[in-house]
Design goal:
The chain has 183 residues and is of the alpha+beta class. It contains six helices and eight strands; from the N terminus they run H-E-E-H-H-H-E-E-E-H-E-H-E-E. It has an eight-stranded mixed β-sheet with strand order 1-2-3-4-5-6-8-7, sandwiched between helices. The protein binds coenzyme A (COA). Coenzyme A binds next to helix 3, strand 5, helix 5, strand 6 and helix 6.
Length: 183
């Protein structure tokens, strides 16, 4: 059974990922609008498609607002940030909608150049930990067929059931009932 660190610990620690980059996780905030815009503007078409399932030629204001303003009782957005040069940049974004059914809906995306080094793993663990604390028992994610990285991330969170729904699949991971507490 998977166990997650306390969300407070995950969100207050600097994590070193596989290529040596130091990444911090925190909740997104309204002052992230510009950083968020840059992050989404730089994503490749394939990455956008894998995240949103539609061609998304431009980053709309609505999208930026969606990821920077949220009611924490209903939705949370966690960003992974890193110091690149002298400025803080967003390198990954994960959101979770807390549904009334105890199944929370997860979406996650990582900067193309930084995929495969563990940022998605950090973000999804933080989301799972926050969702558990809010009473969710399962995390659900929609993904395109063949998205093995996302399947691997869901399986890390807990026992996962995959169901094909046309071009997309739905993965539902059962979250552990217990969490590791920070010492
Ligand atoms: C899916 C995504 C969020 C994963 O984030 P990431 O930072 O690249 O992933 P990580 O480096 O944390 O690794 C993910 C896991 O996939 C595994 N993996 C990597 N490449 C793989 C491959 N080709 N096949 C199978 N597993 C693979 C890794 O080993 C890792 O598993 P582990 O932690 O058990 O070792 C990222 O690739 C992305 O932004 N994709 C586009 C958007 C998307 O697909 N979102 C999901 C739908 S909401």
């Amino acid at each position: 059974m998977a166990q997650f660190a306390d969300p407070g610990t995950l969100l207050s620690t600097t994590h070193e990922v596989d290529d040596g980059l130091r990444v911090r996780l925190r909740l997104a905030r309204p002052s992230d609008a510009m950083r968020m815009q840059e992050f989404f503007d730089e994503l490749s078409d394939e990455t956008r498609h894998r995240r949103f399932f539609v061609a998304m030629p431009q980053t709309s204001e609505t999208l930026i607002r969606h990821f920077t303003f949220f009611d924490p009782r209903e939705r949370l957005v966690v960003v992974a940030v890193a110091m690149i040069g002298h400025s803080e940049e967003i390198v990954g974004v994960a959101g979770v909608a807390l549904l009334e059914t105890a199944i929370a809906e997860l979406g996650v995306v990582v900067d193309d150049a930084k995929q495969g080094v563990g940022i998605g793993r950090l973000l999804t663990e933080a989301i799972a930990s926050l969702a558990l604390r809010q009473g969710a028992t399962h995390l659900r994610a929609e993904l395109l067929e063949g998205n093995e990285r996302m399947v691997a991330l869901m399986q890390r969170l807990g026992r996962t059931v995959l169901t094909a729904e046309g071009e997309t699949s739905v993965a539902v991971a059962r979250l552990a009932a217990t969490r590791r507490r920070a010492a």
